Batch of 2 targets.
Target 1
Amino acid sequence: MTRRRLVTALLVLAVLALFALPLLLDGGAEYAGTDGQATAVIEESGYRPWVESVFSPSSAEVESGLFALQAALGGGVLGYVLGRLRGRRQAARPARSEQLPADDT
Amino acid sequence: MHIAEGFLPVPHAIGWVVAAAPFVVHGARAVATEVRERPESTLLLGAAGAFTFVLSAIKLPSLFGSSSHPTGTGAGAVLFRPPVMALLGTVVLLFQALLLAHGGLSTLGANAFAFAVVGPWAGYGAYRLTRALGAGLLPGVFVALALADLATYGTTSLQLALAFPDPASGLAGAAVKFLGVFAVTQVPLAIGEGLLGVLLFRVLTVNARPELERLGVLPPEPTPTEERA
């Protein structure tokens, strides 16, 4: 049980470190998105897009808000599902632990 | 990996729609069958879609001062096999094309082919291979998610190279150029995505054991599941 927790903590730390370290190491970088870099490479060749997006967020703030909305929707659903699954397991547990008193730990 | 709206010449745009469409239609059928035959899978199906939804919304800083986003399509491919992700991934791309001006309708075919077809299949293939070599579920999940991510960006690079071959060095030169933009940035993100997948599956193996057994991801346990929290 404690070992399981330790592994979880280490995994979370590794993910955080992986994305925090680049930010700490070269603070001056702009972190331009690779999608944008690719379109810049294409435009260098003189190509111009032949159609515009149906709807473009009017500012960077609105755009990041919409991205946050996407993440929130996904995170909300994911949290709901994992919460339900965990609740289901815990609801099933007391019935069993009455039969087997000291099974855990 | 989102090719921006209008950034593929018309013949390429049409070609990729034709290439991706059968996979997406087949994927829609696979989702319908899954929901009809195993209604208890619906929760996990939601989780797989949601995982891709979150991960593809978050642009993360990477080495060399650029940023990009993971894909998250490997998780659903491991759980439900790749066809299901062809539909779920395309839904994510459609949302981003319509509301975020990220990707586009004219490039939806190409983006769906990279994100919702090649990524999940590459991840699933890598998963099956690692499991066949005797590795456990979690190493398999790590490899699946990392490779689905990398394969998607590799495909995007090749799609762009096909559309915009370098005047001097041709197709190969253009491929190297676009891989230079995408691949290097993507490696740390793919590793991070693999680790996130391992975290997700650690939660699922404890809390969704019956579903994972029914999906064939975990072998059925003969005795009623011993709680190992």
Note: The two ends of chain A are 7 Å apart (CA to CA).
Target 2
Amino acid sequence: MADKVFIALQNNADAQPIIEAIVDDNPGAVRSDTPGMVKIDCAGRLVIRRESIEERMGRDFDLQELHVNLISLGGNIDEDDDEFVLSWGV
Amino acid sequence: MSIDLKTASVEPLRRTFDHIEAKLGPDKTPTRYQEAVWGLQPACNFHYRPTWEPERELYDASRSALSMDDYDDLVDPRQYFYGTWTLQRGRQQESQEKNFDFVEKRGLLSTLEPAWRERVERLVIPLRHVAWAGNTNNSYITAYSLGAPLSSACSMQMMDHLGIAQYISRIGLLLRDNEMTVLDDAKALWMDDPMWQPMRALMEESMVTRDWGELFVLQNLLIDGTVHPLVFNRFDAELVQHGGAVFSMLTEFMNDWFAESTRWVDAVVKRLAAESDANKAQLESWITGWLPRVQGALQPLGDYAFAGRAAEVIDSVIDELQGRAQKAGLNF
């Protein structure tokens, strides 16, 4: 279990396209719903892609906007304009 | 005394309305946009046929040669419904107002070389009449098309055109210190100047086009898709070379709007074409039918604005348009 990363987001209308994008982009992702929060676990590497979110949201999206609905995350972050990647690698 | 905190998880019995669930499938959470536009189109129990067109129902699919199994599929990738659209336009209006203030306070338009100032007056200001026709045309599509996703997006497109017409008028007023004569002169050009007559004839014909699908292609794909790049992109770039960078500040909205509305128009055309071969053939025949006319109307404008380079500039605009149509799955 040591290589498992996760991200937890608020379960609201704004976060829906983000959650959907993450689940669709990461075949190994497991979504668990709790009241008010959606937690997504994934073994190894979890990638959040700006383009996938924009497609679902219908507008331009800055990956920094992620933080508005972000509750918590586990993993080291590798981030650029297009992708936000969680993993335990260096 | 100790207090135990417990969370009780309550599963909602239903996530959305039945008609949304029927379209989206069970266990899916719809977006606000989907809830706002799907299933709004009245489809039955019309009782009376309209007295002004007794051969058709009030909402009748036969008003266009295009047909869709479900008109609710013509969704807008921008996901605009009234709330999101007004928020977005409100923001843009605010920054556009600031730009106008900025230019007006400093009298920046006076730095424009006189020859180029005249070009703006002759080429850009009469476009308010084109934009107004775009407003009327989209109002027609709103009235007669089927399915709220398309008709509501067209009503926003209608208001956007009106907004553009107003911005163009304000640029004219800025050019002449709020002298109304600038608008009268632009109207005179629109009515009588040979350069504008092919465009005026085209716009007038578009306004009596009865098939809303044909009008959508003509107005939103062909006319907007050529006039806007020609004037607010190519001519704008030319102007910047001659001390007109300030003009770009005043047309920022037109450029932003064009980039955004293009996504919507392309998505609708693509979905219409994907529905059936008959739709695809119909769209292609409309485009091949109207494109030479549109090109003919652009020619004198291009000749005036770009002199010797007109052919090259117009070709590049048409190429862009053809690229868009091809991406939407059309060949012509």
Note: Residues 71 and 195 of chain B are 40 Å apart (CA to CA).
